[in-house]
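Q&A log
Question type: sequence-to-structure
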Amino acid sequence: MTVVPLRKDDQAMEVLPPAVEPDASPQRSPAADPKPVARLKLPAVRDVFDAAWPPVVGILAFITLWAVLAPRVETSLGALPGPGDVWDAFKGLMVEFAAAREEAAIAEAAGSSYSGPPTFVDQILTSLKTVGMGFVLASIVAVPLGLVAGMSKKFNAAINPLVQVMRPISPLAWLPIVTMVVSASITSDDPTLPKSFVISAIVVMMCSMWPTLINTAVGTASIDKDLLNVGRVLRLGWFAKLTRLVLPSSLPYIFTGMRLSLGVGWMVLIAAEMLAQNPGLGKFVWDEFQNGSEKSLARIMVAVVVIGLIGVMLDRVMMALQAVASRNRTV
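Response status: OK
Response body:
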C-alpha cells in the first residue's frame, strides 16, 4: 500500500489509495463447504502382530510345559492335572451350575426356595461381593485420611507410626479379633448381612486400606506449591481448595493406591475365606482339599486359574476407571 504526500501549502495529511472494490463474484457459504469426514485410523497389521506374539508365545509355552511336566508329578490325590484335565473339571463345574439353576427354577415354580449347596459360580459371586464391600470400606476410610495427612504435616506425623505398625499385620492375625468383635456386635438371629460376609469384608478392609492411604498422602503432599499459592491468592476455602486443587492433582496417586489395595484385598479374601470357612472361593478350595476325591485336585486348579483371571480383570477395571477419571479431571 502506497502513501502519496501533499504539498507544503496543503493540510498536513496523507491520502490513502481508494479502497479496492469488492469482488462481485458470489461467495460460497460455509454451509456449502464439504464437511470433513472422520476416519478411524486402524493400527497397522505389523504393529498388532509385534504386540500380540510375545504374550501368545509365552502362554503357549507355559501350557506346553505344564502339559508335559504335570503327569510326572505324583501327589496324594494322584498325578497333577494337566491343562486338559483342568478344562474337563471346569466343564463339569458348569454342568453342576446349570443343573442347580434348573432345580432352583423348579423349586421357585413350586413356591419353595432352593436349599442346595452353592455352586462354583455362586462362590465366585460371593467372593466378588465380599471383596467389593471390603474395598469400598477401605477406600472410604483411607482416601480422607490420606488427604488430611498429605495436607497437614502434623497429622501425618501423628498417624505415621500407627500406619507402619498396622500395615504388615497378616489377615490371619486380624481374623480372630474381627470374628469375636462382629459376633458380639451382631446378635440378631436374622441379620441384614450375614456374619461371615461382614467378617470377611472387614478383614479385607483392615489389610487393604494401607496402599490407598499411603499413596493418597504422597500424592497430596507432592502438589505443586504454585497451585496452593494461587488458592491463597484467590482466597479459596478449605473445601474449594480440596475439590479444585488437591483432588485433581492427586488423582493419579489415589487410583494407583486403590489398584494396589484391590489386589491386596483379593489375595486377603481368599485366605480369610479358607481359614474362617466363610462362603466363597477360599472355602471352595478348602472343601475340595478336604474332600480328597480324584477330581478334587483338578477342581482346585480350576479355582486357582479363576482366581488369577479375576485378579487381572479387577486390575484392568481399575485401570479403565483411572483413565476415565484422569481424562475428565480439571486442574
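Response note: Residues 238-276 form the longest helix (39 residues).
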